[in-house]
Design a protein that fits this description.
This protein is α/β, with parallel strands linked by helices. 45% of the residues lie in helices and 19% in strands. Helix 1 packs parallel to helix 2, helix 5 packs parallel to helix 10 (240-256) and helix 10 (240-256) crosses helix 11.
């Protein structure tokens, strides 16, 4: 048994899964276990793995599981000290394992380690990586710190969820909560950040591929409101400023741009909130500190 287990979570995408598996097998550091966890509704991925990667450990989930239960099932099976839940439509850089292992050595107390990424949108690589940093490693010391990087105004990007590696003894009892909807990956990370440090590696170690099949591209106001409820529930640790930032960027700005004439009261409420929010936000010293920090990061960022 190796100290790192990499799960490639598959669902009905044999061609993408093949590329993801090849990228995982091309690591410069081979000290890891690779498991293909197939949660497909048909046999295409299974046939592809049998034909191309007979030596790779393969697990078929039958009957097919809901997506979040698939995550939870993999976590329950982990026996290594660290594990990664990688997605079948993304690609690992050849030094992913090597750089993660260096970060684990530098930050042995970290509950999770995420990496920067190149962003590929519908086959085209974007000019800048997923986040910008002036440091080799970004240290996220609290759930408020992490939430601010996700939802605060004037931030410089995030580490994509599929690139995270977790310390098993600190997370094995936690589970993804299906009741929190499509943003349950973020609430999962916030719970981890409340328990221990999260480290982001500034070097891009994966290609995060955005395409028409990504669930994140599908708008769900219901799930946005579910996440708002989560922020309210944890207001004591996350703060009122973040709650206002989230309402602005992810709810009221969307409503204010909407042409939904069936609910004019919502539109009026959104416009009123945004006017008040802008005045209050730019009267705070923290806003100007964040703007200065972002400008410095853009000027001096790694890579």
């Amino acid at each position: 048994m190796k100290s790192l287990a990499i799960y490639i979570l598959c669902h009905n995408r044999p061609d993408d899964a093949k590329l993801a598996i090849l990228s995982a097998l091309a690591q410069t550091d081979s000290n890891y276990d690779l498991i293909v966890s197939d949660n497909s509704s048909h046999d295409d991925v299974e046939r592809m793995v049998q034909q191309n990667f007979p030596e790779v450990q393969y697990v078929r989930r039958q009957p097919m599981l809901p997506a979040l239960e698939h995550f939870n099932r993999c976590i329950s099976e982990v026996s290594s000290t660290h594990f990664c839940l990688f997605h079948d439509d993304d690609l690992m850089a050849a030094d992913f394992v090597q750089q993660v292992r260096l970060a684990i050595t530098a930050f042995p107390e970290a509950i999770a380690i995420g990496s920067n990424a190149f962003i590929e949108t519908n086959g085209q690589l974007e000019a800048r990586p997923s986040f910008l940093s002036r440091h080799i490693h970004e240290v996220i010391a609290s759930d408020r710190d992490l939430a601010t990087r996700y939802f605060g105004r004037h931030q410089s990007g995030i580490a994509p969820f599929p690139g995270y590696v977790y310390r098993h003894d600190m997370v094995h009892s936690l589970k993804f909560n299906a009741q929190e909807g499509k943003y349950s990956d973020v609430t999962w990370l916030l719970r981890l950040a409340a328990l221990g440090k999260i480290i982001w590696i500034a070097k891009p170690l994966m290609t995060y591929r955005i395409h028409g099949g990504n669930d994140g591209l599908v708008e769900s106001r219901r799930d946005r409101l579910r996440f708002l409820a989560y922020l309210k529930k944890h207001l004591h640790s996350l703060g009122t400023g973040l709650l206002a930032d989230y309402r602005c960027g992810f709810i009221y700005k969307t409503i204010s741009k909407s042409a939904d004439t069936a609910h004019p009261a919502r539109w009026i409420l959104a416009r009123k909130f945004l006017r008040r929010y802008r005045w209050e936000r730019y009267l705070r010293a923290e806003t100007w500190r964040a703007l200065l920090q972002r400008a410095l990061i853009k000027k001096m960022a790694r890579p």
